Amino acid sequence: MSTKVRTADTRERILTAACEVIADIGFEKIRMRMVAERAGVSTALLHYHFDTREKLFTEAMTHSFANTAVDLERDAETAPAAVILARILRNLLPTDPELHQDWRLWQELWVRALRDETTRVFAVDLYAQLHGWVSDAIRRGITSGEFTPTDVDDLSTLVLSLSDGYGIRLMLRDPTVTLDTALTSIWRHVSTALGLPAAVPTE
Questions:
Q1: Are residues 89 and 138 in the same domain?
Q2: In angstroms, rounded to a whole number, what is the distance separating the alpha carbons of residues 12 and 178?
Q3: For 89-107, what is the mean pLDDT?
Q4: Cβ-contact 85, 193 below 8 angstroms
Q5: Is position 199 within any domain?
Q6: Residue 191's closest CA among 153, 138, 131?
Q7: What does the pLDDT read at residue 76?
Q8: What pLDDT is stored for residue 69 in this prediction?
Q9: CATH of the domain at 75
């Protein structure tokens, strides 16, 4: 195995471990030693790759974000636009253990963004990328004739806002909200705006 490959593998293990530890106990409580132990590396090696907790946190968020992007891009050019858009909606909610962990990371990001300007700018940039995922899927469907034309930016903002609102209540285990009701409610707004069937598409 080349040095470059080993380095990439080590960074991957560290970032995966960082995501897990931050989601488990929160950013304010983590110590670099905890992440190193979870990743199976020395603290010195961890500091070699990430010299501060803040840099590790930012890279961990980016890592988590990138993994979600890979799933969203799967067969994106060949699947029906409605299927891709529904997939995005599912990925915006805590629909499985991995996305539940991602949501815990997002909640840590929101808290830090309220107190730290660098983190705030980073969070706004990540939201811009989320907006891009949703709006690109909508535009693709409009261009192909699958969707009724609409105000793309306005609908994308609504989708993200609804996803955040329902996602928070799901994370709080609010007994009045379920994944099915959240997804169905969000899709109702989407389907009305885009002239689509009321049923949420499956893969």
A1: yes
A2: 33
A3: 91
A4: no
A5: no
A6: 138
A7: 67
A8: 67
A9: 1.10.357.10
Task: Give yes or no: residues 47 and 85 share one domain.
Answer: no
State whether 88 and 23 are in the same domain. Answer: no
Rg over alpha carbons for the chain, rounded to the nearest Å, is 19
Using an 8 Å Cβ cutoff, are 153 and 86 in contact?
no
Q: State the average pLDDT for the chain.
A: 89
Query: What residue ranges in the chain does DSSP mark as E strands?
Result: none
Q: What is the number of alpha carbons within 13 Å of residue 1 lying toward its C-beta?
A: 7
Answer yes or no: is pLDDT of 162 > 70: yes
User: 123 is in which domain, residue-wise?
Assistant: 53-194
Looking at the predicted structure, is the pLDDT value of residue 38 above 80? yes
Rounded mean pLDDT, 144-173: 96
Token pair for residue 42?
């020395």
Question: Is residue 163 within 8 Å of 88, Cβ to Cβ?
Answer: no
The predicted model scores a pTM of 0.85
Rounded Cα–Cα distance for residues 62 and 139 (Å) = 25
**Computed from CA positions of residues 98, 8, 134, 80, in that sequence, does the dihedral angle turn out positive or negative?**
negative
